[in-house]
Amino acid sequence: MKLRFRLIHRGERGSTFYCVDSETGQRFSLKTKDRDAAEQMVLHRNQALRQPTLNLQIAKAYLAGTDSGVATRTWQNALDALVETKHGATKERWVRAAKDKALDGIRNKTIIETQAESLLQAIKSGTVSTNVHLRKLHNFCVAMNWLPWPLIPKRLWPEIQYRPKRAITLEEHRRIVEREQNPERRDFYELCWHLGGSQTDIANLEAEQIDWKNRVIGYTRKKTGSLAFVHFGNDIESVLRRRPGSGFLFPYLQGIRPGDRATEFKQRCDGLEIHGVTLHSYRYAWAERARKAGYPERFAQEALGHNSKAIHRAYAKRAQVTLPSLEQYERDSAAENIIPLAQQSGSAIPEQGQPSRTVPIKTAGNA
Question: Do 184 and 328 share a domain, yes or no?
């Protein structure tokens, strides 16, 4: 193995000895005129570099017995392997994440030779998305035994700090709808407000998913595959009546990318000087409205297509709720014949005269 540091001495006997770095060409004084001392200093410098390198080579030799690619596998190879495990919209997000310029510093580095500082530098130079996806990539490599141990312990990863998210207000929604000249986009924003669905789910709604007899819309969520059921009233019906009677309700919006729909919405918000909202803000707005109105949480979960109460509560955490007194609530319940929530949750079978929530769902398998 070629030694990186070598000893030189310039001038006459008794002059100071110097150490030269053969890689950078840098020369610096050892501040001694004793040859034996100078040689020991250079020897120690070379050994300090040689030992970690030697240890790494020994580790590679052992790991190569079970994994032949350990000496050459790079982070780009790991990214490609991870992307291939994903499907649908999740795969599209990972394809975009793999192109993150913040990863260029480690992209072609061998995984086994990477130091934690390189990952931290990538996170520092990137965005929130870089932190999220690099953390998952690192954990993927550990799970695949491509890393013998975590480079960064779980509790030491930089905290993920998302930008504040908020719901769109009724006044903001009305301003957007009133200014929108395109009927399809206007109806799309109206359904986002009334249904609280994600932009992709609303854009992919089909006329065949509407049960007019029972006044129910049912669809399968693109992201999670869970079912969402919404019983609609007159406001939603008036919007649905304006849409096509068969096929997609929004033919143009269904055929464009989600990013393009988001860009069009942002352009309209910028024109009205509305800031801090996206199409996903309609989902927050629906959850907050439901909570403020006292809508049972399990019904809201079903309408939003959430399987977790924690997710629904995260959407509705900003809702301003005014709680009535128990005395007033008891009087109102008796006067309006409200079924207590505990009794509602005890039976999932609708009583006679109530509309059924059963609706034919069109999935990818029978589309």
Answer: yes
Mean pLDDT of the chain: 81
Same domain, 230 and 275: yes
Question: How many other C-beta atoms can be found within 10 angstroms of the C-beta atom of residue 11?
Answer: 7
> What DSSP assignment string belongs to 247-313?
SBSSHHHHTS-HHHHHHHHHHHHHHTT--S--TTHHHHHHHHHHHHTT--HHHHHHHHT-S-HHHHH
- Tens of pLDDT, residues 336-348: 655 554 444 443 3
* Element containing residue 216 per DSSP (H, E): strand 216-220
Q: Which residues contact 139 (CB under 8 A, 6 or more apart)?
A: none
Could you tell me the CATH number of the domain that includes residue 286?
Answer: 1.10.443.10
pLDDT, residue 162, reads: 82
- Contacting residues for 159 by C-beta, under 8 A, at least 6 apart: none
Per the domain annotation, does 346 fall within a domain?
Answer: no
Residue found under tokens 């690099």 = 134
Number of structural domains (the chain) is 3
**What does pTM read for this prediction?**
0.60
Give the range of the structural domain holding residue 316, as residue numbers without chain letter.
170-339
Over range 168-189, report the average pLDDT.
Answer: 94
Residues 26 and 143 in one domain: no
Helices 281-292 and 297-304: crossing angle in degrees, nearest 10, is 160
Pick left, alpha or beta for residue 12 (phi over 0 → left; psi -120 to 50 → alpha; otherwise beta): beta
Cα 338 to Cα 53, 105, 329, distances in angstroms: 75, 62, 10
